[in-house]
Amino acid sequence: TNNLDPKGCDQCVAGEDDCPCDVQCNRGTERYGGGSLGKRSCGEKNSFPAMPLCLPSQKPPVCEQPQVAHARPLECTGCVADDMENCKCKVECQTGFARM
Q1: What is the pLDDT of residues 68-94, one digit of tens each?
Q2: Cβ neighbours of 40 (radius 10 Å)
Q3: Is this model's pTM higher than 0.70 or not?
Q4: Which of 46, 56, 57, 97 would be 70's cystine partner, CB 3.0–4.6 Å?
């Protein structure tokens, strides 16, 4: 539960729907599996559903500069995976070569 941020769960009564329990991942972590995030209630068996698995957020990998024979990559450093909006990478042919 180190990466979880449960609020109000200690005020729940088994079998009652009016439960203020809300489970979220702590800042800097994200859900990778397990139970769902959000509102929960304590069931008839006096237990909550499975807790979510929250792990430290992973930064997207940095893309390698393209390695293409007779080509010149431009503005290709610092691009990260799945961020086409901010990656301005262009590849042009070197002088004396043409794209076919």
Answers
A1: 888 888 888 888 888 888 888 998 998
A2: 20
A3: no
A4: 97
